[in-house]
Amino acid sequence: MVMHPSSKPSTLHLVIHGRVQGVFFRQSMQREAQYQAISGWVRNRSDGSVEAVVQGEPAAVDAIVRWAQRGPERAQVERVDIGPGEGDYSAFEVID
Question: How far is CA 44 from CA 21, 30, 57, 95, in A?
Fold first, then answer.
């Protein structure tokens, strides 16, 4: 990812609700993140939701948030809670 001096990366924390576990959500999100040059992480939560932190150029972060609102083909996303995220990431990881 090429960083321009005037562009500051955007970091958001997402919690994705719905049928989002057991549908390859994390792996699909990692693939989409790599395509969009997004860093951060994604993991399943014990309540059945998926949690992620996404970081990158603002337009790329917007694109992956839009992707998360749909998810992969077999997912049924009900809603995505979006808040500010923190941290500094160099890659996008699936956390078990």
Answer: 7, 13, 25, 8
